[in-house]
Amino acid sequence: MLEPRSSFVATDAVRLHYLEWNPVASSVAQAEEQWKPDNVETLSAINEQSNDNDAVPLILLHGLGATADTWRLVANHLGQQRQVFAFDLRGHGASEQSADGYDLITVAEDVISGMARLGLGQVALVGHGWGARVALVIASRHQALISHLILIDCPHVEPRHWPGMTRERFIREQMEPEIYVSRARYLQEWQNELDPIWSPMIEEIVMTYVTLLSDGRLVNLLQAEHQRQIRSSLWDDRAVSYYPRLQCPVLLIPAASQPIPGEEPPEHLEQAAEFSAAKGQMAAQVARAIPHCSVYWMAETAHDIQLQRPQLLADIMLAFLHPLKETFADESLTFNTLFLN
Questions:
Q1: 124, 146, 163, 141: which is closest to 237 by C-alpha?
Q2: Total domains present in the chain
Q3: For residues 32 and 40, what is the distance between their CA atoms, to the nearest angstrom?
Q4: Residue 294, C-beta contacts closer than 8 angstroms, at least 6 positions apart
Q5: How far apart are CA 318 and CA 316, in angstroms?
């Protein structure tokens, strides 16, 4: 498992924690650890790799309540070929918990400021869930800085369009629990969702989303008030207005099956199957509104695709970013077979 570098960057407004995977640094460190006089050519080849400028860095943005660690399994594959940065967004993980500033635009500008402080120019941008909505805002507002945009199970269906949904109900009823009675109960909820791919590494990842109290209970690192501000911003936001403004190639990866032509959208959004069907319908509509868009339909997959199918997700991302150059664990995967317009 590739271990990232953990550090902080001071943006214009808040201090953000981030993880960085650097394939050149990792390769050099490994070669130097096993250094022998006859491996000078290997070190030279690795150093030449550092001058390969056609591979822009990747920025990974996590979902609501998660942390940069949610990308560890995917970055273990991506980080062997690309420089990868994953931020803890404002109020999440080890990043600063400001009293306000949790609307999508402010959180998006945190990322842009962090990129500038790290000396990053153009990047490929990846977002999951709420982080995909943040990524969407970034790509529409800072078009020259984004070479590619990948939206993983993005909530395209705006909550105001859910049958029977009101602003108050969305903010109140859809919020994640703030406190869990025990570590065992918290982990069991996750294991129920991700069984049978549950592993010690996934357990380690989801434990970064919470902190342990002295009485044995667990509390989310994302505070309830900050989560309310985020959900309020999601209610007010008009995601559909961003899509026509996107100029870079875009890849949608919904956790849904491709809709059958002529299929009617679900009348209710209460069950998981209904949400999945609605996500598929909306992703198909959104894809038609984006100038340069591809879709990979990730059927029979949980929302947290990055935990459930990290190798496949990494291969899909690399195929999209550089279809003629990247190689995959599954040799049957090609750009043409992966993507549907």
A1: 141
A2: 2
A3: 10
A4: 249, 250, 251, 252, 287, 320, 339, 340, 341
A5: 6
Beta-carbon contacts of residue 205 (< 8 Å; ≥ 6 apart): 69, 70, 72, 73, 307
Tell whether 27 is covered by a domain. Answer: yes
C-alpha 223/C-alpha 336 separation (Å) is 43
Burial of 50 (0-12, 13-18, 19+ CB in 10 A): middle
The pair of three-digit structure tokens given for residue 156, joined into one six-digit string: 């395209």
How far is residue 32's CA from residue 39's CA, in Å, rounded to a whole number?
Answer: 9
Instruction: Give the pLDDT score at 269.
Output: 59
Residue 25 confidence (pLDDT): 60
- Measured CA to CA, the distance from residue 121 to residue 329 in angstroms comes to 30
Q: Which two tokens stand for residue 169?
A: 């109900």
- Give all strands of the β-sheet with 210-212 in edge-to-edge order: 179-180, 218-220, 210-212
Predicted TM-score (pTM) of the model is: 0.88
What is the length of the chain?
Answer: 341
Spatial distance between the Cα atoms of 311 and 85, rounded to a whole number of angstroms: 18
How many CB atoms neighbour CB 170 within 10 A?
17
Count of Cβ atoms closer than 10 Å to residue 27 Cβ: 18
Residue 172 is assigned to a structural domain of this protein: no
Average pLDDT per 10 consecutive residues for the chain, totaling 341 residues: 95 97 65 48 40 75 98 96 96 98 98 98 97 98 98 88 84 81 95 92 98 95 95 92 94 92 67 74 91 93 94 96 60 50 45
Q: Return the pLDDT at 330.
A: 53
* Residues forming a β-bridge with 219: 179, 211
Does residue 327 share a domain with residue 187? no
Residues 247 and 300 in one domain: yes
Q: Are 60 and 75 a contacting pair, CB within 8 Å?
A: yes
Tell me the residue range of the domain where 203 lies: 177-221
In a domain, 203, yes or no: yes
Chain CA centroid to CA 247, Å? 20
Q: Please report, as a single letter, which amino acid is at residue 293.
A: C
d(CA 45, CA 111): 33
Give the torsion sign (CA, 240, 258, 130, 23). negative
